[in-house]
Design brief:
Blueprint lengths: L13 E10 L3 E9 L7 E8 L2 E8 L4 E8 L4 E5 L2 E3 L7 H16 L1 E16 L8 E12 L11 E7 L1 H9 L6 H12 L9
Parallel strand pairs: 4-9
Antiparallel strand pairs: 1-2, 2-3, 4-7, 5-6, 5-10, 8-9
Length: 201
């Protein structure tokens, strides 16, 4: 098992058995027998365990949001998304999480945090908790600026990177052009924290 395991829960969760079906450096597929606090008998559940990840809202000095258009093989489509990526460490410390966010920003957008910029932690969320334990850490990076003579990492499946106004992002969500959980979640968190505003339609 090479990816993070859930820590024991003090609220009464109990694992009575586990079978691992597959594992590599990025994920594992396991079936557990789990007794939940509300159940007297264990229930079998198959879960994909994945490394934790970072999700970055990268804002330019003129308050535009960087989005990358990325080819996603599982759904055979290219989507507009905020930059994101997996954290290498199984139980990362805050500084490792922040370093991963800045690395993914650089690799996926060829931008970096400006010398007078700030990296703001916005909490976390679970991508699909009925299916996977993947935990996503949200950050706002502002302002960001392009790196000279550096392009997007060719290993990434990114075919475009652009800066969009908040009004444009809102319209893209409304038109169903932004459809990934990372981007929708971080936009919701930014709105809830008052860091961006979506106008009533």
């Amino acid at each position: 098992m090479r990816v993070n395991k859930p820590k024991p829960d003090k609220a009464g969760w109990e694992v009575t058995g586990e079978t691992e079906h597959y594992a590599d450096d990025h994920l594992a597929v396991i079936t557990e027998q789990v007794r939940a606090p509300s159940r007297s008998h264990p229930k079998a559940w198959t879960t994909v365990r994945r490394k934790s990840a970072v999700v970055i809202a990268a804002m330019t000095r003129d308050d535009k949001l960087l989005l990358v258009r990325q080819e996603r093989i599982p759904i055979r489509a290219a989507l507009w998304e905020v930059p994101a990526g997996q954290i290498d460490e199984a139980e990362p410390r805050l500084e490792q999480i922040e370093a991963t966010a800045l690395r993914e920003l650089r690799e996926e957008t060829a931008h970096v945090l400006a010398s007078d910029g700030e990296l703001v932690a916005l909490g976390d969320f679970f991508a699909s908790p009925g299916f996977t334990d993947e935990q996503e850490y949200l950050f706002l990076a502002r302002p960001v600026e392009p790196l000279r003579d550096q392009k997007i990492d060719p290993e990434e499946a990114i075919i475009d990177c652009r800066a969009f106004s908040i009004a444009e992002v809102q319209e893209m969500i409304a038109r169903h052009e932004i459809r990934d959980a990372n981007t929708l979640s971080i936009c919701a968190r930014l709105v809830a924290r008052g860091l961006i505003q979506f106008v009533p339609r």
